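Allow me, if you will, to draw on your knowledge of protein folds for a short while. I have a record of one protein: its chain in single-letter code and its fold written as discrete structure tokens. Kindly check, if you would, that the fold set down in the tokens agrees with what the sequence suggests. Thank you for your consideration; the sequence and its tokens are set out here:
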Amino acid sequence: MLRAMARTIQPPGWPRPRGYSNGMAARGEILAIAGQIGWDENERLVGHDFLPQFAQALRNVRTVVRAAGGDCEHVVSMTIFVTDRSDYLGNLADVGRVYREIMGRHFPAMALVEVSALLEPGAVVEIQALAVLPAPEETSP
């Protein structure tokens, strides 16, 4: 029987957050996902606009987690770096829709940070994440 890899931490009396968790407790193998930007497997940005880059960066995070043998529900923490928070806020409804399409309804602990620039020219969003993967003995039936 598989044990839950992560559980949501919700302090008593706090309002339930929308689109993220206040905390996640997890056990298993830790996978650190390097900052992923909105480029494809050939290192070409998918466009100049925020939303396509956000979607591609999320897909890149998911791809790294899956390559390690996990899936979206194993992501316990995510930090989103944006060069313009008004781009993020102006696309908030679409950000939520795209997030759910790619990551499902699993909402890890998250932070959003506005930065003056990202290392790669033209990149407007970067997503760094942590996942906790099941230990090999926990994946066997």
